[in-house]
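This part of the workshop introduces the protein records we will be handling. The structure tokens are whole numbers drawn from a learned vocabulary of backbone shapes. The record below serves as our worked example for the rest of this section.

===
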Amino acid sequence: MTDALAGTPSDGIRHHEAPSDVATTVELPPETEKITPLRVLVVDDDPLWREFLQTYLEAEGYRPVAAAGGAEALQLLEREPCAVMLLDLRMPGMSGKDLLDRLPAEGAPRVVFVTAAPTEEVSAAMSGGPHYYLPKDASPAELLLLLQALEAH
């Protein structure tokens, strides 16, 4: 029913129709869990450990890449930066500490030492900046919690 004086429906709300040349619906993109998965570089000379971390991280929705040593890691970082680097300290050739010293000051990934090295050696390597540490015998759940915390900040 229309109110004759106001020319509006009796509910008191003025209703307008969109012109025929104006779209009245908007399509939204489908929801995704993560817009861009976090790229994680795994640097370790142990091939079984690298493979385990890659498989685990990929299953958890991350985008892992791996390097067998420091030189390979630097090459990978030149091609495509990463957000986080899981780094072993004790590797032949270029050690994890040597690799850390060669990272650029700008745009360097956040470093998580995942190593079986003694705590004193890890502490010395971490003295140059805000880095993180997990022993190699830490559970995968602990690694996941740390990555989630780093991703949130």
Q: What stands out?
A: The first strand starts at residue 2 and ends at 3. The CA atoms of residues 67 and 76 lie 8 Å apart.
